[in-house]
UniProtKB/TrEMBL annotation:
Name assigned to this protein: NLGase
Compositional bias of kind Basic residues: 570-586, 1265-1276
Start and end residues of each Glycosyl-hydrolase family 116 N-terminal domain: 127-461
One BP term from GO: carbohydrate metabolic process
Sequence segments annotated as region (Disordered): 1-40, 191-210, 549-619, 643-711, 725-802, 1235-1294
Domain called Glycosyl-hydrolase family 116 catalytic region: residue spans: 850-1209
Stored Pfam families: DUF608, Glyco_hydr_116N
Composition skew (Low complexity), residue ranges: 554-569
GO molecular function: beta-glucosidase activity
Ranges of biased composition (kind: Polar residues): 1238-1264
Basic and acidic residues bias (residue ranges): 1-23, 683-695, 746-763
Length: 1294
């Protein structure tokens, strides 16, 4: 450690060579390090054409992703496992195969299905998708095809529907002797090329249907330009050399606009410029099949009809009958008619070409007449009016806009496409209203209104988009590729299977026109489908191969949830109780969630240690973290006070008298003397907090803490009340306060109907708003609306129907759990059904914006996968912060759930509860989101070590960024429970959680054991964040406890993991223990993003980052691939497992953000550019960025959530105003402390709370860091490890 100052000097000298600092303290690349312009516009469009388009304001932007339409579409190469990896994962593969077979047999989409190779092979074909957020989306390729249909939750069909096209027809001269026509798609699709006859003498079959159309476009003079959410296609003299056509594609993705951004609609605006000498009659034809992707166009029952809206908007409705559903689905295609533009429509044509009016007739009619003519004018009895289609027949509709363009002039034609499916229905039957129905109604007739609104407002949308993007596009201090990719990676918020509801409870069966009735939807209890014989045989074969798959759940599904570590006696197998995956057989009612608050104060004294996590200590007295000091194993040896050591004795359940000392756990449970010590410490902490907040004068008589919060107001937090009663959400604050506080968002979040005065600290209910049920057992109130989504964290003042935990049966009825919960016999008491008054009004608990879901990936089908959202969440927080808060609140609610349903985990073949109270879920489910959480069943994620710290960090980061006190209060109980739950994983009391020797983290094939750089760093950062949040809410005792644990853990972390250059992968004796993990500083990254002090020395962080840059980045194709996850010091890629040898795109972006925080701008952009180079240039992953690729470019899991982490880089460069304001205040405090005492340069006092416990999380904070580096020479490495807040805890009393 003595080499610290020397390391700092070397780093400083290297840094000066690569970037320069402005007067404001921000860093930017020197001119020599800036990349040349990415795809210069003049290289793609002729200068005269570009000038012409620019004068009309429709030219493509100077910065965009570009591609010529005549370039080939390459097939993408998928990764393969090595022989060694296949051997290691063989049993998992067989279990997964069996699970997939069962899921398919029941008509469900498996969460992971590596055995289903799509007919549509992955291609480098995608472009900017269509539509807003959460209403379903359609992809559109860069060649103009409509593909990647995501209109039903969890279902993605990649294949294009080739009938969906724009085509152009041109006539020139008085007699129209010059004619040009073509589909605006380069070349003829392979699907339409007829196969060669086997008999060479036999003539090939004549083309039919859309194959008869003119696929004449060469594409060599046409270019595609993408800057999400807009795209431009410029046809520079194609098909008519004297005609310039520009198409602008616009979707309503408008940051901070929670209304228009939800609309399922897109606009196509065509500017047509005539550079010839003759008038040009131009007809633009938009054809569209009545389909939702795949083979749905052949299901039958579809019909079309024409419509006319105001302002000349004319088009066709395509009423689509959903298979096996009664929900409405309607398309609308339309164009705007004016004095110059004539619009005609064709209601129905036969796409396949087997009737008189088919696709060929449509093409011939427009080519001859330039428009659709009436039936009488055609002189035929064939009607174009729609009747319902028959099964096996495909129908389409068409809209034609015709305009005459004089020489030297331009005309504009505007089309729109909308889809109206007001209900989102999940596979288990639960259904919700989509967000946009709040503005366009729920009747299923909104499509014409949507296209009308889009056509009239698309210009204002474009203006809003340009205003948002311009500051970033014009920022020449960052590379051009970064500015382009920053926006284009946002495609996933549309193409990620997103669902956005209006926030109302789920729809009841029989609901009409939005009026709900009392009968509950019964799909959850629907009988299983009969499994086909072939599938049954295959499933049985896998059972025979896997002897552990034949057998079964060792405990009945009705038993209470046990702790993550099952006792030996509980592992006995009971062959009679068979389970297949995590679904239920016919006749078995699924066990629905119990909403329960997890706390160390809760006791469930079962035969094997109870149901809430036996490894966690329990207490029969005290509350919250005060009890934690007396019970938790992390405390270790308690310091002697005045020469007297506290006595230690086993804790007993106050109700039953049984000693709670589960096998294999470490418990140091204090008795009276330790309790007194804890109370003394808590009192001193509160007194110190009041003194700090009162400017050193202490709390004056007759004043409250909120009257002494000037320091907080100075930090830009207004007059927010920064404390709560000793309890949790339910006991804190009045609604009037929370709605009037500054929250950093667009508007205040007022929950109608919520009232209630703030509870005095001395009158707080035990356990944070929980009610005591017998001695030693406290259970938080639950809601009888639990099955309808999130309800555990109810608005304050809204009393629940009952104060006991609630389990929801299959019909949605709430069943109370009696006082015998955890009575030692493993039984659950069932009380009478709890009812909710029908007159109880709906209260929006999601900040007025509803609920939001998006998939982990189109191949990994789980909603809001949390360990991945940890990386991706910066995009939502930056652009739609209310949606981010709503999502986090959903996880706060889910954290409090307990779902006793037993499921099989495929990695080991063992069984466990679906959800344990206090464990943050891996995801929010798939078939019944918000209710049946944890769809992921590879591992038991209740034992994962990264999920709970990630939840705490995200909640605190979002709180700091938005300043939303209501959000903080809503989530505090879940944050506290998550922290207490994770403390069981500190098995030796050293302040750090330990990994369990298997992949118990987001790297779910990469085993890790003991203390690890990744999870250990996240845990340390979470302790800091929890302490900061506790301070903000007045929970000073909790803050002190978290800081005490941080002091203990940080010293151990450095001792066992730091090797002088970087932090080792873990502290085990495994062969890859010393691996250089690219993500080793994830905790430090989030500490910066949260505005928290660093976890360790700057020189350590920078040394680790430079080692990662040298090995993980630059040794892989000279930095052109991103950062490989694991590397050995020998320079060899760590091939321990599949994931260690992969490059993870989102992790690379996160690593780059960490580098930015540490002042390494050149390295940061070089690292991130590798993802751009490999994904957006070399390997064809544009608009489908995968989770990972190997060093040879083979992908795994296309179209993935994690690459949204590029917005973490922007978050580092331009932090939110409240984060920046708090950071500035923190920097001033630190500089003042450094001037007074060099011992206090790594943090602030414990009572400095939300702002004082922060440092700037952006490169502009380097001024403070430069000063710290100078002062650091006077610090011993050991002393500098602790933050001054922690030093203050011990030394303020001396």
């Amino acid at each position: 450690m003595a080499d610290g100052p020397e390391h700092t000097k070397v780093l400083e000298s290297k840094k000066s060579e690569t970037y320069e600092r402005s007067k404001s303290g921000s860093f930017s690349l020197k001119p020599g390090h800036r990349r040349k312009p990415s795809w210069p516009l003049n290289d793609f469009i002729n200068k005269p054409t570009l000038q012409l388009l620019a004068t009309k304001g429709v030219a493509p932007p100077s910065l965009a992703w570009r591609r010529k339409l005549n370039l080939p579409v390459s097939l993408l190469k998928e990764f393969t496992v090595t022989v060694s990896e296949a051997f290691k994962m063989a049993r998992l593969g067989l279990r997964l195969y069996r699970h997939v077979l069962e899921e398919r047999s029941q008509g469900r989409v498996p969460i992971i299905d590596p055995f289903n190779k799509s007919v549509t092979r992955p291609q480098a074909c995608h472009g900017v998708p269509l539509g807003g957020i959460g209403g379903g989306s359609i992809g559109r390729g860069w060649r103009g095809d409509f593909r990647r249909w995501q209109l039903q939750p969890g279902i993605c069909d990649e294949a294009p529907v080739l009938a969906d096209q724009f085509s152009v027809f041109i006539k020139r001269g008085a007699d129209g002797h010059k004619r040009f026509s073509s589909v605006l798609y380069p070349g003829r699709p392979e699907e339409l090329i007829p196969p060669k006859p086997k008999d060479k003498k036999k003539a090939p079959e004549p083309p039919t249907g859309i194959a008869t159309w003119g696929w004449n476009l060469k594409g060599d003079k046409s270019t595609y330009h993408a800057l999400f959410p807009r795209a431009w296609t410029v046809y520079d003299g194609e098909p008519d050399p004297e005609l310039k056509i520009s198409c602008r594609q616009v979707s309503p993705f408008l940051p901070h606009n929670y209304k228009d951004s939800s609309y399922p609609v897109a606009v196509f605006s065509y500017l047509i410029a005539n550079t010839g000498k003759d008038d040009a009659q131009v007809s633009v034809l938009f054809t569209f099949a009545n389909s939702t992707g795949g083979a749905t166009h052949l299901s039958g029952g579809h019909s079309n009809s024409s419509f006319e809206e105001k302002d000349g908007v004319t088009g066709v409705l395509l009423n689509h009958k959903l298979k096996h559903m009664s929900d409405k689905f309607t398309w609308a295609i339309a164009a705007q008619q004016s004095q110059e533009v004539a619009v005609t429509t064709c209601e129905t044509f036969d796409v396949e070409g087997s009737t008189p009016y088919d696709a060929k007739a449509v093409w011939d009619e427009i080519a001859h007449h330039g428009k659709f003519i009436s039936m009488e004018a055609r002189g035929t009895a064939v009607s174009k009016t729609s009747t319902k289609s028959k099964p096996g027949k495909s129908i389409g509709a068409a809209v034609c806009a015709t305009v005459v363009v004089p020489p030297g002039e331009e005309r504009e034609v505007v089309f729109s496409l909308a889809w109206d499916a007001p209900v989102v229905r999940f596979s288990e039957g639960s259904a919700y209203w989509k967000r946009y129905t709040q503005f366009f109604g729920r009747a299923g007739n909104a499509a014409p209104k949507l296209v009308h609104h889009a056509i009239l407002n698309h210009r204002s949308w474009e203006a809003a988009i340009e205003e948002w993007q311009k500051p970033i596009i014009d920022d020449d201090t960052v590379p051009e590729w970064y500015r382009i990719t920053l926006f284009n990676e946002l495609y996933y918020l549309v193409s990620g299977g997103t669902v956005w509801t209006d926030g109302t409870p789920k729809i009841r069966e029989g609901a009409e026109n939005g009026r709900e009735v009392t009968q509950e939807h019964q799909a959850l209890a629907a009988p299983r489908k009969e499994v086909p014989f072939k599938t049954r045989v295959l499933m049985k074969l896998t059972d025979v191969v896997l002897s552990d798959a034949i057998d079964s759940d060792p405990t009945p599904s009705t038993s209470p949830v046990r702790s993550p570590t099952t006792s030996p006696s509980a592992k006995k197998r009971t062959p009679k109780a068979k389970h297949r995956g995590h679904r239920h057989k016919e006749g078995r009612t699924p066990v629905e969630p119990i909403r329960r608050s997890f706390s160390l104060d809760q006791v469930s004294d079962g035969a094997e240690g109870g149901s809430l996590g036996a490894e966690v200590g329990r207490t029969s007295s005290g509350r919250g973290l005060a009890g934690l000091l007396r019970t938790s194993s992390w405390l270790g040896k308690v310091e002697e006070r005045d020469g007297v050591a506290p006595s230690l004795s086993p804790l007993k359940n106050g109700a039953s008298g049984k000693t709670l000392s589960p096998p294999g756990t470490v418990s140091r449970l204090g008795a009276v003397s330790l309790e007194e010590w804890a109370e003394q410490e808590g009192g001193a902490e509160r007194k110190a907090g009041e003194t700090e907040r009162n400017g050193g004068r202490g709390a004056e008589p007759g004043t409250s803490l909120e009257e002494n919060d000037g320091a907080l107001r100075d930090a830009g937090l207004g007059s927010q009340r920064m404390f709560s009663a000793h309890g949790s959400v339910a006991s804190v604050g009045s609604q009037d306060e929370s709605s009037e506080e500054g929250n950093g968002l667009d508007e205040s979040h007022r929950d109608p109907g919520t009232t209630g005065a703030e509870t005095d600290r001395g009158e707080a209910p035990l356990g944070g708003g929980s009610e005591q049920v017998g001695e030693g057992l406290r259970v938080a109130p639950s809601s009888a609306h639990a099955a309808e989504g999130t309800a555990q964290l109810r608005p304050r003042g809204k009393a629940p129907a009952a104060s006991l935990p609630v389990r929801i049966d299959a019909s949605g009825a709430a069943i109370g759990l009696g006082d015998d919960l955890g009575d030692g016999e493993g039984a659950v008491g069932i009380e009478p059904v709890l009812t909710v008054p029908e007159t109880e009004p709906f209260v929006d608990t999601h900040y007025g914006v509803g609920q939001f879901l998006y998939l982990e990936g189109v191949e990994y089908v789980m909603w809001n996968t949390y360990d991945v959202h940890f990386y991706a969440s910066f995009a939502l927080l930056s652009l739609f912060p209310k949606l981010e808060l709503s999502l986090q609140r959903d996880f706060a609610e889910a954290t409090m759930m307990e779902i006793p349903e037993r499921i099989k985990f495929l990695h080991e073949g063992d069984y466990g509860p679906r959800k344990v109270a206090g464990a943050v879920p891996h995801d929010l489910g798939i078939d019944n989101p918000w209710v049946a959480v944890n769809a992921y069943n590879i591992h038991n994620t209740s034992t994962w070590k990264d999920l709970n710290p990630k939840f705490v960090l995200q909640v605190y980061r979002d709180f700091v960024a938005t300043g939303d006190m209501k959000f903080a209060r809503d989530c505090w109980e879940a944050v506290r429970s998550a922290m207490e739950y994770s403390m069981q994983f500190d098995t030796d009391g050293d302040g750090l959680i330990e990994n369990g020797g298997f992949p118990d983290q987001t790297y779910d094939t990469w085993s890790v054991k003991g203390i690890s750089a990744y999870c250990g760093g996240l845990w340390l950062a979470a302790l800091r964040a929890a302490a900061g949040m506790a301070d903000a809410l007045g929970e000073f005792e909790a803050a002190r406890c978290y800081r005490a644990m941080f002091r203990k853990g940080s010293a151990k972390y450095e001792q066992v993991l730091w090797n002088g250059r970087y932090f080792k992968y873990d502290a085990s004796d495994s062969s890859n223990s010393a691996s250089i993990q690219a993500d080793q500083l994830a905790g430090q990254w989030y500490a910066w993003a949260c505005g928290l002090p660093p976890l360790f020395h700057d020189y350590q962080a920078q040394s680790a980052l430079r080692t990662i840059f040298e090995y993980n980045v630059m040794k892989i194709r000279n930095g052109k691939m991103g950062a490989v996850n694991g590397m050995e010091l020998s320079g060899k890629v760590d091939d321990t497992c599949m994931q260690s040898r992969e490059v993870w795109t989102g992790v690379t972006y996160a690593l780059s953000a960490t580098m930015l925080y540490e002042g390494m701008a050149a390295e940061a952009f070089k690292t991130a550019e590798g993802v751009f180079q490999a994904g957006w240039c070399d390997h064809g992953y544009w608009f489908q960025t995968p989770e990972a690729w190997t060093v040879d470019g083979r992908f795994r899991s296309l179209t993935y959530m994690r690459p949204l982490a590029i917005w973490a880089m922007q978050f580092a460069l331009k932090p939110p105003p409240l984060t920046a304001a708090a950071a500035v205040a923190s920097r001033e405090v630190q500089e003042a402390q450094a001037a007074l005492s060099p011992m206090q340069t790594f943090g602030t006092s414990p009572a400095s709370s939300f702002s004082g416990d922060s440092v700037n999380g952006s490169p502009t904070s380097n001024g403070a860091r430069q000063k710290r580096r100078k002062d650091k020479k006077a610090l011993s490495p050991k002393r500098a490890t602790c933050c001054s807040a922690d030093i203050g805890d011990d030394e303020a009393q001396n």
